[in-house]
Amino acid sequence: MQNKGLFRPTWVEIDLAALEHNFKQIKKLVGNKAKVLCVVKADAYGHGMVEVSKKLVKCGADYFGVASIDEAIKLRKSGIKLPILILELIPDEHAGSIVDYNLTQGISTEKLAQSLNNYARKKGKIAKVHIKIDTGMGRLGVWHEGALELVKKIKKLKNIKIEGIYTHFPCADTDRFFTNHQVRNFDTLIKRLNKNNIDIPFRHCANSVGVIDYKCSHLNLVRPGLMLYGIYPKENLRPKIELQPVMSFKTKVLFTKKIPQGRTVSYGRTYIARRPTSIATLPVGYSDGYLRVLSNKAEVLIKGARRKIAGRICMDQSMVDLNNLKNVSIGDEVVLVGKQGKEKITLEELASLAGTISYELACSIGKNNSNRLFKNT
User: Fold this and answer.
1) Secondary structure E strands in 274-352
2) How many angstroms separate the CA atoms of 130 and 166, rounded?
3) How far apart are CA 25 and CA 21, in angstroms?
4) Who's near 165: CB < 8 A, 6+ residues apart?
5) How wide is the angle at C-alpha 227 spanned by C-alphas 224 and 229, nearest 5°?
6) Which terminus has fewer CB within 10 Å in the chain: N or C?
7) Which of 4, 152, 240, 267 is catalytic?
8) C-alpha distances out from residue 118 to 28, 31, 121, 131, 239, Å
9) Are 231 and 225 in contact (CB under 8 A)?
10) Torsion of CA 338, 18, 211, 102, to 10 degrees
11) What is the pLDDT of residues 120-169, one digit of tens each?
12) Cβ contact 358:348 at 8 Å
């Protein structure tokens, strides 16, 4: 286990063996027909982009997907040589960095393609692009009905290689009819391209839900994100694939004290002791990504038992009602996300309590914790 040093006893553990397990599960689902583009944007959803990417290289990843040039350059400087697709659009004036760092750019406009082409021509290089098609997301991309004309225009640029074409699902977890409609529209576009003798090597649309639940969307490249990290994008997908959580979130008991019946705990006095009890104070709060909305809702694991947060979560501290749990001492390990004994708390559980999605929670916890430990490197 790598340990950068813990002065404040609140940390995130990243299990790279679990990451490897999840990658292998993905490969079982897609087989040899589709390559795997691993989405590692947002610091690998808070899991540590560089370390995660290096592990995925060893596992057999084919491609990486990031959100920005900054993320891509960070991977290049860390020694990652695999292709990297920038999924977001970039300002035209940054086109040079795409060529200089041998990156692949997702594009939706002829103007950006022209900028890439001009810089690549000056350098005597070829810029690789994937064209983003909008089949219903309504965000980035050219609408699928007009995509053929854009592809034709970009194909004429001599220093551009159209390496891929892709689309994105906005509601694969909730609307099967619409998602299948997107796949059909994307397939129709590919057939139109073929009729015009335009062969684009990579075609991709499957996100994590697509990988698990829409075999028709696998094509020849898939883009798993959340499932790499052992988080289920939809609860009813658990029987279809066995994923292992990669992230655990832990702290230690900072202080304990007994409080009599009627006393209150934390800001706003939202917690009132209904009986004499003991309170443990933890050095973790919303500045660590442990959301304030979890106040009086979330549970933690202490000595293998679930105990509830008492009162409002503070910026850097939280309190727990020990509820007669015996022999709790300062320094005892507390699990906020992960396993302890026979009990476990998942990111999905906390996200449900917080009224949000596990993506946000993972990113929030990872982003706000400089103490990150990597196991099974």
Assistant:
1) 277-282, 299-302, 305-308, 318-321, 333-340, 343-345
2) 7
3) 6
4) 130, 131, 133, 147, 151, 189, 190, 193, 200, 202, 203, 204
5) 110
6) N
7) 267
8) 42, 39, 5, 18, 50
9) no
10) 120
11) 999 999 999 999 999 999 999 999 999 999 999 999 999 999 999 999 99
12) yes
Residue position matching structure tokens 């977890």: 173
375 given a catalytic annotation: no
Among the listed residues 41, 54, 55, 128, the single catalytic one is 41
Confidence category of residue 3, pLDDT binned at 50, 70, 90: very low
Reading the block at residue 8, the tokens are 């404040």
Taking the C-alpha atoms of residue 54 and residue 234, their distance in angstroms, rounded to an integer, is 27
For residue 2, the model assigns a pLDDT of 45
Q: Give me the domains of the chain, ranges plus CATH numbers.
A: 33-228 (3.20.20.10), 247-375 (2.40.37.10)
Residue spans of alpha helices (H) in the chain: 16-30, 41-46, 49-59, 69-77, 95-100, 110-123, 147-155, 176-195, 208-213, 347-354, 358-367
Residues facing 259 on adjacent strands: 277
Q: Which residues pair with 305 in a beta bridge?
A: 302
Measured between alpha carbons, how far is 49 from 12 in angstroms, rounded to an integer? 14
- What's the token pair of residue 159? 């220093």
- pTM summary value: 0.94
Residue type, 102: N
Per the CB < 8 A criterion, the answer to whether 150 and 193 are in contact is no
